[in-house]
Amino acid sequence: MMCFLKKCTLFRAHYTVNPVNVLRLTPDCGVVEMLKDCDEVLICEPNQNLWHMLRKMRRIGGSRFMGISRVDTVSIPVSDQSLALAFYRDALGFELIRDHLADNHRRWIQLAPKGAETTISLVMPFGGMTPGSVQGLVVQTDDIHATHHELSSRGVPLSEIVTIIGGRFATFADPDGNGWVLIEATTQMLA
Question: CB neighbours (10 Å) of residue 130?
């Protein structure tokens, strides 16, 4: 079912769930009504700011819109931030986004694989964390054999490559034992 409204512009969002709710908004972005079970995501008045409209959606009771849109940063507990930085930047090839010393006791180190949206932060343990306690983080490659060879030549201790239905993978750990999975998906792997 597709819902159309007069004098409206149709916007599609990339994080929808079906069926979704559709809102008709006034020029000042006030909600006029909510239409249920439409295939399209959002209908609004022309020239409205999409982000502003999505913020309005969060305030509507019964909406299936969820305020969380992505995983931003994963904290990796380490015992030595400088040693961990060298591993993630130099051995794995992650890009350094931020290395900020707030004072003598707090340092914020943030990295990400090239082009990745989700980042990691190398943190001193807090809230019950212990160095090496994060396991099963997954990074993807287009060519597992070439990546396995390259990382091994940089001193990363990888397991043998294992082939499973839908892909190949190898595991490795950082100097504290935080566990990672390197995967090459041969089919689209959905969560």
Answer: 11
Instruction: Report yes or no on whether pTM surpasses 0.90.
Output: no
Mean local confidence (pLDDT), 101-111: 88
Tell me if 67 sits within 8 A of 58, measured CB to CB.
yes
Sequence-distant (6+) residues with CB within 8 A of 28 are none
- Alpha-carbon dihedral of residues 154, 158, 164, 167, nearest 10 degrees? -20
- What local confidence, expressed as pLDDT, does residue 116 receive? 93
The pLDDT tens digits of the residues spanning 10-51 come to 443 333 333 344 444 444 444 444 444 444 444 444 445 554
The domain segmentation of the chain, as residue ranges, is 9-58, 73-185
Distance of alpha carbon 30 from alpha carbon 24, whole angstroms: 8
Q: Under CATH, what is the fold of the domain 73-185?
A: 2,3-Dihydroxybiphenyl 1,2-Dioxygenase; domain 1 (3.10.180)
Cα(75)–Cα(8) distance, integer angstroms: 42
How far apart CA 19 and CA 1 sit, in angstroms, is: 9
